[in-house]
What we know:
alpha+beta, five-stranded mixed beta barrel, 4 helices, about 35% strand
Amino acid sequence: MGDFPVNPLVVIGVGSSFAFSGLFYHLYQEKKKELKKLKEIPIFKPDQHLLRVLKASPHKRLQYVAVEGLVQADGEPLASQFVPRCFGVIQKLAAEEHWKYWNSLSRTWNSRTMNRKETKNSVPFSLVSPGAYFTDLYVKVQNPLEASGCYLERVYHRVRRAEEGLANVMMQGLSGEKPVAMEESEELLRVGSTLTGFGEVVLEGGQVMRLQAPQDGRMYILVPTDHRSFIDRHERSASMWKTLTAVTGITGASVLAGVIYNLFGKQDDRSK
């Protein structure tokens, strides 16, 4: 190897390519396992079929299923505080102040947020089948705030800049702090939006179906999309890791093959 030195950067590049290929392959296999488990979960809609299955099930209970439907408030929905004629069943309001303070060591203004306030409101709601707003068949969603998942839609966001007056400038000089902006946002789980819930479904009183947190420890999840789109997103993620595995692996193999070819090519030229 002393007669045929190899650029260390090439060695690092080949090693990195194979290392990333191995990492991406591991992530692909993990996502593939997750996708297989997701596809094994039975999917239902709030209809007569789900009711019949529940009535035929032991203890009138399905341990872990997915239920897809449209969000409908059981009573009066929550009205948006900022958007007219916008209603939801879960509401998250957040406000925080952005300030700058003077750092005497670096002699610069540094940023920080403070006085963050967050409020969550909810009203009882159910899932109904599309086109069935007036029906006796629905699945009540119990304790939705305990469920995981990014199911809220941001309907309002505003950053209000602080006004700089003479009084504020004087206070900045005394305290070494100055307000920059106030940020406000509102998120809603909107009435009429599509929601897929993963959890346990029980039948009460022979007619009332309820989605709740599973008793076997599995995750209680709410997803703001239909089940097919949810699966498609996971399939695209698995495809991405698979593609990255192939690209980095082929790149590493190609560079390695080029290095070996050059080494043996030079060796043949010298032997001649």
